[in-house]
Amino acid sequence: EHMSYALVPTVVFTTPEYGACGMSEELATEVFGERHIEVFHAEFTPLEWTVPHCKFQCYVKVIANYLDKGRVVGVHYLGPNAGEVLQGFAAAMRCGITKSELDAVTGIHPVCAEELVTLRRTKRSGAVFRKTGC
Fold it and tell me: Where do runs of H (alpha helix) occur along the chain?
């Protein structure tokens, strides 16, 4: 089987770290059309950053293609341990995970990766995407 470079996870080790796997929102819109994708996103503060009162905000985004049963085509993460968080999601994307399958995963609380399996707010809805509390 040939290597698929479309799903290679990439991480930039800055503070905070940024990682992505799959398509950007712009590319998914261009390829599938705006009405066929849904972008789920949230801004959050990791529990480990609340005590030292860190000023950074974290952000997660999942892009789903509803032309293909809601298949996840992009995951983006800005926060601590991006490489650790994205590795498992890259494997799931390689296996063809859909947004509904991602929603069915029980998140480990309180870790940052949990944010990716609890996303319910969409950009299209216009709902506030800043999460507060646990």
Answer: 25-32, 47-50, 82-94, 99-103, 114-117
